[in-house]
Fold this sequence. Notes:
Keywords: DNA-binding, Transcription, Transcription regulation. The protein has about 120 residues and is mostly helical. The protein has 2 domains: about 5-50, no CATH class; about 60-115, 434 Repressor (Amino-terminal Domain) (Orthogonal Bundle), CATH 1.10.260.40. About 55% of the residues lie in helices and about 0% in strands. The protein has 8 helices and no strands. The chain has helices spanning about 5-10, 15-20, 25-35, 60-65, 70-75, 80-90, 95-105, 110-115.
Amino acid sequence: MRLFSREEVRQARPADPAKASGFTDDDIDRMIADDPDEAPDLSTLDAAGFVGMSPLPDVEALRDRLGLTQEEFARQFGLNVHLLRDWEQHRAEPDTAAATLLKVIAEDPDLVRRAVGGRR
């Protein structure tokens, strides 16, 4: 399951904004009571304890921006092409190390190319 950053959550729009804005705190409490799996009650938790996650790079957009095929991207950056395909098709999510590597590739692809042996 994909985790969303705070910024992504802030930017999200409900399908029916008028309906969503019409809910009172009592309505929400009732919905949670009716179905505890609907949403956890976070009212007693300290917001400072929550950790925001930076959004995962859009792997396909990154690869397209670099003008590379999946095979070229995987070879140049030392990645498994099958895993790359899974990321692009959202069948899998990059783990923390892979997400960090993708962020570095987005910032400085030549640095990563040099680090993995200059494969071209």
